[in-house]
Amino acid sequence: MENRLKTLFKKKSKNVLSIFYTAGFPTHKDTVAIAQYLEAAGADLIEIGIPFSDPVADGPTIQASNKVALDGGMTLPILLAQVKEIRKQVKLPIVLMGYLNPVIQYGVERFIKEAKAAGADGLILPDLPLVEFQTHYQSLMQAEDLCMSFLISPTTSEERIYKIDAASTGFVYAVSASSTTGAKGDFQPEQLAYFEKLSKLNMQNQHLIGFGIHDHQTFSKACEYGAGAIVGSAFISMLEKSNDLEKDIHLFVTRLKKGN
Amino acid sequence: MKYAVTDEGYYGNFGGAYIPEMLYPNVEELRERYLDIIGQSSFQEEFNKLLKDFVGRPTPLFLANRLSEKYKASIYLKREDLCHTGAHKVNNTIGQILVAKALGKSKIIAETGAGQHGVATATVCALMGMDCIVYMGKHDMERQKPNVERMRILGAKVVPALSGSMTLKDATNEAMRHWINNPTDTHYIIGSVVGPHPYPDMVARFQSVISQEIKAQLIQEIGNPYPDYVIACVGGGSNAAGAFYHFINEEQVTLIGAEAAGKGVDSGESAATTVLGKPGVLHGSKTLLMQTADGQVIEPYSISAGLDYPGIGPMHAHLFETGRAQFMSITDEEAMLAGIELSRLEGIIPAIETAHALAVLDKMEFDKDDVVVINLSGRGDKDLDTYIKWGKY
């Protein structure tokens, strides 16, 4: 069977909605159900975060969700078991995203093989250096048919964007601003100029825009320039307040896509 | 030069630059330019002039007679405690603020634990007229109130880190987040030999003035630049890096790092990284790190806020792994007793970080001809509250 992430981008190159949430948040048992509700609500892609004690690229919302998840006993082996569980019912592509250290302790090669076996389609490891990936892990990931998405940011040079694009498979993760996760407000003109520039580069991969996508307006704006967008902090804030995950996730996804 | 850093920033299996893309351009700019900038004669001239006229270098190498008598060796103290601001930290902040100027940056951020690096950064920012923001764990702000006020008097903004255990590790996380959010006009002055390459090497170079002076001073004192032992405390490890630097390739010099055992290495309240740590990645480099089996970072403990860090610099991890340096674990109690001993025998109240290095003496068997240099990295003024609370003097 072809990698679900590759299949998705073959079929769809506009308005791809990717939702990020932290494994084990709000509680340990919610990881599987949230994936099911997201599929039912019409998300295209699921990114599940591996919690870490020191998430330096994240703003307060995702930091707090990491802490709650860890305090609740979430671990990488538990997450892999949950992915297996999700895969029994959910057909959406699944990407696992996390800081490098928990993956190193688990064993990077072991993680790659077991993530694939559990049913994941891609990985994002933002603090894994490009060169280290190319030297040690790229061929294994190709052999396992597991995608790897690297990040680019507004300060990434054009030359480096092409390098990152060449090493990435599935999609390229375009960070929308020089910021940590969870920015609020509308896009600034320089961000739109940056999106415009990206859309005109001749990248081999589609790119999804992430960081600061929090409502219908920012989602649809980002979709004008990229293949789609990634929503994380806003989704996690909603989960935190929700008393009915199924209903609220449905409402959240519908509003993101269609507005109110 | 088997202990030197490689072009890619590795010391053996440790080091590198493990950073998200948002930090890459800044760190890469620094990596590309730091050696050129530091190597320029105008830079060296200004750096050395400030070290002399502002910091008060060279710091003395003091033969501690009564300590020597007790431990039956010639014991010299490298008096970094006499540096302006009270510790070796300022050697690095002078160097880095000049680098920041050369890079065209107008704003400075820093992290601090005990507050010594924060004060040293606030000091050079005042000197150079640069904006300064220091991140400090909320818990450390309460423990080290006088240093918080010193930074404020110097014009710095002190921002409490409210995440995690609210100590040095969390302050470092917050400083990195600030840098991600302000990538163009801001330079991050890291205070120890930690962080992504080139920081460990750059900070070690700025601190290497310590061992450079020790060599010259020993020639004057004993006619030979090489002591038998160099002893320094290690949190992240910047004072040890500076004290070891010019001796690392001289294998006849025994290098000893003193780590904080806290309440004992098996107590669950410790910061003895070489004993308790495993290879891992935190704050941009691969190094020895105190962590759970799942790779979550463990909160360290030490009576001294400056040693309260879950990792050590990658250079020290390499010195440990190769056996080039020995690392010893010193408990809170042993350090406090050694601090009192130095006060009574030599009239110097050391910083509690430094007291960990002094406590090594009691664990050693020296020959009477041995020449021992202890890096007296900081003075104890900031620690009076801790001495008073401990009370056994």
UniProtKB/TrEMBL annotation, chain B:
Annotated Tryptophan synthase beta chain-like PALP domain residues: 56-378
Cofactor(s) of this protein: pyridoxal 5'-phosphate
Keyword rRNA-binding: no
Classification via Pfam families: PALP
Pathway where it operates: Amino-acid biosynthesis; L-tryptophan biosynthesis; L-tryptophan from chorismate: step 5/5
Annotated catalysed reactions: (1S,2R)-1-C-(indol-3-yl)glycerol 3-phosphate + L-serine = D-glyceraldehyde 3-phosphate + L-tryptophan + H2O
Enzyme class per UniProt: lyase
One GO term describing the cellular component: cytoplasm
Function: The beta subunit is responsible for the synthesis of L-tryptophan from indole and L-serine.
Superkingdom to which the source organism belongs: Bacteria
Listed PANTHER family: TRYPTOPHAN SYNTHASE, TRYPTOPHAN SYNTHASE-RELATED
Source species of the chain: Chryseotalea sanaruensis
Entry EC number(s): 4.2.1.20
Family designation: Belongs to the TrpB family.
Name of the protein described by the UniProt record: Tryptophan synthase beta chain
Gene3D superfamilies to which the protein is assigned, alphabetical: 3.40.50.1100
Subunit structure: Tetramer of two alpha and two beta chains.
Matching SUPFAM superfamilies: Tryptophan synthase beta subunit-like PLP-dependent enzymes
Residues bearing the modification N6-(pyridoxal phosphate)lysine: 89
Key word Lyase present: yes
Keywords, alphabetical: Amino-acid biosynthesis, Aromatic amino acid biosynthesis, Lyase, Pyridoxal phosphate, Tryptophan biosynthesis
